[in-house]
Design goal:
The complex is a heterodimer of chains A (114) and B (116).
Chain A (H helix, E strand, L loop, with lengths): L3 E4 L2 E5 L4 E7 L7 E6 L6 E6 L5 E4 L2 E6 L4 E6 L8 E11 L2 E6 L3 E6 L1
Parallel strand pairs in A: 2-11
Antiparallel strand pairs in A: 1-3, 3-8, 4-5, 4-9, 6-7, 7-8, 9-10, 9-11
Chain B lengths: L4 E3 L2 E4 L5 E6 L6 E8 L3 E9 L2 E5 L6 E5 L5 E5 L8 E8 L11 E2 L3 E5 L1
Parallel strand pairs in B: 2-11
Antiparallel strand pairs in B: 1-3, 3-8, 4-5, 4-9, 5-6, 7-8, 9-10, 9-11
Classes of the chains: A mainly beta (114), B mainly beta (116).
Chain lengths: 114, 116
């Protein structure tokens, strides 16, 4: 069973537009939700993360919106730029005793057209 | 500060062979995690080592093993390679156990393994 469902699989946005990527989860015990950005030939890099007791977190052009009751969270990229073209992964982390278990979404390939 | 380094970057093996991948974490980091990334399955967790002890293991067969040395460097071994093992293998390091707020994982560029 897929614990974290991510959509869309791919996204094309014009430069200056807003990119929105959505994730839904099942387990209410998840306690941390990071987003990763991965460029071709590189490993993922942490972009922004949120705790479930916060409804929104903003860092520059990147915002996470978190809806605890709907068990959904989304990444918004404002004023999208061609340099934002990358694959984005959401994740949910479950703390289990002395380690953290990661559940990743399937990824969204974002293409920002100039 | 140097990032996470992985060697080799590319590797071609044939079925039945074994392979060892290496990861050097960021200086001072004590946790090293390994992930397999494929187009079909996405990112899947293999295992995490912290201070030379395996703390967490994903759902992979016993052909996949790892270890961590006293200097936090880590190796991952895959024995009896199968075609389905072709993937990008990523290593990530963090100061504390991966995943905690404030314990960001830093990923290396990965080792691209192709099994023929």
């Amino acid at each position: 069973q897929q614990q974290v469902k991510q959509s869309p699989q791919s996204l094309i946005v014009q430069k200056g537009g807003i990119s929105i990527i959505n994730c839904a989860y099942e387990n209410t015990a998840f306690d941390y939700f990071p987003w990763y950005q991965q460029f071709p030939g590189k490993g993922p890099a942490l972009l922004i993360a949120i705790r479930p007791d916060v409804s929104e977190k903003k860092e520059g052009r990147f915002t996470i919106s978190f809806n605890k009751s709907a068990k959904q969270f989304s990444l918004h990229i404002m004023d999208s730029q061609p340099g934002d073209s990358a694959t984005y992964f959401c994740a949910a982390i479950l703390k289990i005793y002395n380690f953290n278990k990661f559940y990743f979404g399937s990824g969204t390939k974002l293409n920002v057209k100039p | 500060k140097a990032g996470v380094t992985q060697t080799p970057r590319y590797l071609i093996k044939t079925r039945g062979q074994q392979v060892t991948l290496s990861c050097s974490p960021i200086s001072g980091h004590r946790s090293v995690s390994w992930y397999q990334q494929t187009p079909g399955q996405g990112l899947q967790f293999l295992f995490e080592y912290f201070s030379e002890t395996q703390r967490n293991k994903g759902n992979f067969p016993g052909r996949f093993s790892g270890r961590q040395f006293s200097n936090s460097r880590s190796e991952m071994n895959v024995s009896t390679l199968e075609l389905g093992d072709s993937a990008l293998y990523l290593c990530a390091s963090s100061y504390g156990l991966a995943g905690g707020p404030g314990d960001e994982q830093f990923f290396g560029p990965g080792t691209r393994l192709t099994v023929l």
